[in-house]
Write a structure and sequence with these properties.
The complex is a heterodimer of chains A (327) and B (324). By secondary structure, chain A is of the alpha/beta class. Chain A is built from twelve helices and twelve strands. Chain B has an eight-stranded mixed sheet, sandwiched between helices. Classes of the chains: A alpha/beta (327), B alpha/beta (324).
Chain lengths: 327, 324
């Protein structure tokens, strides 16, 4: 078997609280990502999806969070132990990232061209002005920005939200990265603009082969964009499957509840299913299954210990005691 | 819904914001540009549109949190658009509002009980003891037991805070509540809890909601009637079934088709609209939607379509309604 493009193995991220206590924010997170595929990571706020992405790029807040255990393998090399200097070679060149709010990711006092060129120069100091300009133009055209020549001379505030996100995508892809991490890239946008950006990302993935890691809380975005889905809950991976398999045959009680509790725009529903209670806090994580206190099928065993991950023949993985016997 | 009375009506309601800077040319932003709206008793009217379309301004103008520029607001048969502050105070007991961010709409120095009791204190209803009892009763009604009474907003989760806000809005037993994106800041599993609560409150307390949202799936779940807004105007309105099953305006269709559906079944090709919403400071002539509309003709640039009846209660503002 060939080495996957990116593999995260048994990762644990710890946070240091104000009282100097170390608590684990995520535990035993493992997944693989190959080129030409989109991996969707879905979960509610605080489930650890964003920090998992940040940890890959070595962007955990300094002095507050660190990777305590596990490996992050980029083409077989463990990058979790890289020095900040080595990471700089990875960030942007091998792995790029786009964020939720494009206004805060762009510097308001520099023109679009200055910001895009800075990125190109960081990875190729010898690039000539003319080459950089040509590359900027090419990228803006690729992401569907009309009148790119004029846009390059403008400042971020002169662009609309959708345009800014397109600029971010253009910047992220201008160095031909192998992986693009997108952290809620469409959440701050209107639905009609969200549709445009999703379309664009799918198109770019197909033409460039860049692997995409798509972090979102929206099951709809997951269904339309991903090839594989990782469902996270309270810092643990609870389910992993190919997208069709996950939506047709969700197996973890949390995934099942989540899918049933979404109101649909394409059909009427009488009363919404609800998952009672709320997510446990960082410091009060139960020792057993973290979903046990909200789970309709919870037993004594669920409260006692965390279930092992069961893998079915079709690659569907579930961390739940319900499926332990069926193995 | 046929027989019930009209609770609130607006006639040609307008809210313009003017730029009055010295020496600079006067610009007018027509945030709400001539909206006719009817809310019947015990009805939920959904108001949907993208950011900047004027839906929140309309909600606020109805409660006179923004002074309307012109038009009429008729609440329970009386025209309230010219009411002064003191007159509005009486009316506001019957009209409440729920906002998007429950953290921002709760005073961090008030505990839950104080927050929920505050409307009763202001209205001067009953003795202090009675008010406390009523507040506790209301809290348990929204699913928060007595242990929450002494808590402060920062000690609660988003869903619990939104329950407090709902309890506070409902304690004066209003007839009409404007809900401005009440569930947008909440996580999926918590959102379902709050939506079910809002539905329960409505059927048991017999209130009417004006439910403002950008999320059509939430609107489909909660609302009876839906109005779609684009650049300050209503482009389509009607019973929920007409809007979701037989939408006639190209904008409504595009909006519906743009929503990602949490399902992997095959679905018709998505209509992706070109470009962005034009600036409301300088909207296109004629039909405001024509710059993004795939069916636009010269007629659309010259003549502004009126909101006309297509069939029954289904109204559409498009020259080609029913033909495309």
């Amino acid at each position: 078997m060939s080495t996957p493009l990116l593999e995260v193995r048994d990762e644990r991220i710890n946070f240091i609280l104000e009282n100097k206590k170390h608590v684990s924010a995520t535990e035993h997170v493992s997944f693989k990502l190959d080129s030409h595929t989109t991996l969707g990571i879905v979960g509610e706020s605080g489930c650890g999806k964003s920090i998992t992405a940040s940890s890959i790029l070595g962007l955990l807040p300094k002095g507050a969070g660190y990777v305590a255990e596990g490996e992050i393998l980029l083409e077989g090399k463990d990058i979790s132990k890289y020095t900040p200097k080595q990471m700089q070679q990875i960030r942007g060149k091998e792995i790029s990232m786009i964020f939720q709010e494009p206004m805060t990711s762009l510097n308001p006092v520099y023109r679009i061209e200055t910001q895009m060129t800075e990125m190109l120069k960081a990875h190729d100091p010898k690039i000539s002005k003319a080459d950089a300009h040509a590359r900027c133009l090419e990228m803006l055209t690729k992401v569907g920005i009309p009148a790119p020549e004029q846009r390059l001379r403008e400042y971020p505030h002169q662009l609309s939200g959708g345009m800014r996100q397109r600029v971010m995508i253009a910047m992220a892809l201008s160095t031909n990265p192998k992986i693009l991490i997108a952290d809620e890239p469409t959440t701050a946008l209107d639905v009609t603009i969200q549709a445009q950006i999703m379309e664009l990302m799918i198109e770019l993935k197909e033409s460039t082969g860049t692997a995409i890691m798509m972090i979102t809380h929206d099951m709809g975005v997951i269904a339309e964009m991903s090839d594989y889905v990782l469902v996270m809950y309270a810092g643990r991976v609870v389910e992993y499957a190919a997208v069709k398999e996950l939506f047709r045959n969700p197996m973890h009680p949390y995934t099942q509840g989540l899918l049933k509790s979404i109101p649909r725009s394409d059909q009427d529903s009488e009363e919404l299913f609800t998952i009672e209670g709320s997510v446990p806090g960082l410091t009060e994580m139960p020792q057993g299954c973290r979903f046990a206190n909200r789970c309709p099928h919870a037993t004594e065993r669920c409260i006692q210990s965390f279930p092992p991950t069961v893998e079915l023949e079709n690659g569907h993985q579930i961390a739940c005691w319900l499926y332990e016997e069926s193995k | 819904m046929e027989e019930s009375k009209i609770l609130l009506e607006t006639v040609d309601l307008k809210k313009y914001f003017e730029n009055k800077k010295f020496l600079s040319p006067k610009t007018v932003l027509k945030a709400v540009d001539g909206v006719d709206l009817k809310v019947h008793q015990h009805e939920t009217v959904g108001l949907v549109g993208e950011s900047g379309c004027g839906k929140s301004t309309l909600g606020r103008a109805i409660l006179k949190l923004h002074e309307p520029s012109s038009g009429k607001i008729i609440f329970k048969g009386s025209e309230i658009q010219d009411y002064k502050f003191n007159q509005m105070r009486e009316i506001r007991r019957q009209m409440q509002m729920i906002f998007q961010d429950p953290f921002a709409s709760l005073n961090p120095r008030y505990n839950v009980l104080q927050a929920v009791k505050a409307p009763l204190d202001v209205a001067g209803i009953g003795t202090s003891q009675e008010r406390t009892e009523k507040a506790l009763e209301m809290l348990s009604y929204v699913g928060l037991n007595e242990s929450f009474a002494e808590k402060y907003p920062h000690e609660m989760s988003g869903g619990q805070r939104q329950r407090v806000v709902i309890a506070r809005a409902m304690i004066l037993e209003p007839d009409f509540v404007v809900c401005d994106e009440p569930v947008s800041a909440l996580d999926v599993s918590v959102r379902a809890q709050v939506l079910n609560l809002m539905k329960k409150v409505q059927s048991e307390k017999q209130v009417s909601y004006l439910f403002i949202s950008h999320d059509l799936s939430v609107v489909r779940y909660l609302c009876d009637t839906v109005m779609v807004m684009y650049l300050g105007k209503i482009v389509e309105s009607g019973p929920k079934e007409d809007i979701f099953e037989r939408s006639a305006h190209p904008y409504t269709r595009a909006l519906l088709s743009a929503i990602p559906i949490p399902d992997v079944a095959e679905r018709p090709k998505r209509i992706v609209l070109e470009g962005d919403v034009p600036s409301p400071l300088n909207p296109p002539s004629g039909c405001h939607f024509r710059t993004r509309c795939p069916f636009a003709t010269e007629e659309c640039a010259k003549i502004e379509p009126k909101l006309d009846v297509l069939e029954g209660k289904h109204k559409v503002a498009c020259h080609f309604a029913g033909k495309i």
